[in-house]
Known about the structure:
By secondary structure, the protein is mainly alpha-helical. Helix content is about 80%, strand content about 0%. It is built from 6 helices and no strands. Helix 2 packs antiparallel against helix 3 and helix 3 packs across helix 4. It is elongated, with a radius of gyration of 14 Å.
Amino acid sequence: MLQAQEHHSEIIQIVERARDHDALIESIAALLDISDGYAQMVRMMSVERLASAYERRRIIDELEELTKPLGD
Length: 72
């Protein structure tokens, strides 16, 4: 999701220009180099969540917590 936030402007443009749902998912997946399933999750994110600095910090914090070695 962090990657989606970094490319929020491009994703919004893709949403505006997509001719149908399948094209939208394929374009997001290609832009972010992710699976169609993850692209679907990105599509469902709100514009505010994609662009929010607070949400970005929360995602980074969560990622750091998940990648900490056990026992820390």
